[in-house]
Design brief:
Length: 158
């Protein structure tokens, strides 16, 4: 067992992990942050996307030990300080960018990373960026609309 320490959603945390403990397991099982989902265990679906030192990372592809000392943001850390939804979360709600909700945390985290890199992406850029996130319910149309809205570009009425 090895001691790891990191900052998760602005709070210093630490815990004991085995060498094979994935970051997603540490977040969910040790810290109780179950908003980060495990969908495939093979890094194909993107439900486990979080931010590590400001970059979108599939947390099933990194060991907890590798994140020692890192700044981590999970979906639980995306809300505004007063607990209200962030602009991205609100856009997903307003534009029906979710159905069952299983992929939503990873989609929101990916959207936040995209908008940090490219504040006004095109629809094609959004679709390309989300290519590592799978959704079985929505067909992506409303997810793309939500990200366009969150970027401040507006969305055409349908």
């Amino acid at each position: 067992m090895t001691e790891v320490s990191m900052t998760v959603n602005g709070k210093a945390v630490s815990g004991q992990v085995e060498g094979r403990t994935l970051l997603v397991q540490f977040l969910r099982e040790t810290l109780g942050l179950t908003g980060t989902h495990v969908g495939c265990d093979t890094s194909q679906c993107g439900t486990c996307v979080i931010h590590v030192n400001g970059k979108a990372v599939k947390s099933c592809t990194i060991f907890a030990q590798e994140a020692d000392g890192a700044q981590i943001t999970t979906i639980e850390g995306m809300a505004n300080p007063d607990g209200s939804l962030s602009p991205i979360q609100k856009a997903f709600q307003d534009y029906h960018g979710l159905q069952c909700g299983f992929c939503t945390p990873g989609m929101v985290m990916s959207a936040a990373a995209l908008l940090a890199e490219n504040p006004t992406p095109t629809e094609a850029e959004i679709r390309a960026y989300l290519s590592g996130n799978l959704c079985r319910c929505t067909g992506y149309h409303n997810i793309v609309r939500a990200i366009l809205a969150a970027s401040g570009q507006g969305v055409a009425a349908e």
